[in-house]
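I am still getting used to backbone structure tokens and would like to learn alongside you. Would you supply a protein for us yourself, any chain you care to pick? Start from the sequence, derive the backbone structure tokens from it, and show both lines together. Go ahead whenever you are ready, and we will take it from there.
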Amino acid sequence: VENIGDAFMVASGLPMCNGTRHMHGIATMSLPFLSAILHCQSGHMPEEKLKPWIGLHTGSQN
């Protein structure tokens, strides 16, 4: 997991290859993460809802 500005980047299959299950692994991790974020509330702005988004990239790590 790497923090990039206001985003978190997660990679699957690095540094050890995990076959062809990269997308499944990331999607399986991201759905509970998304659900948990939707139930979070900011202490100083309780009326504001977090608006998370998840993008999946299937290219190489280069």
Observations:
- The first strand starts at residue 2 and ends at 4.
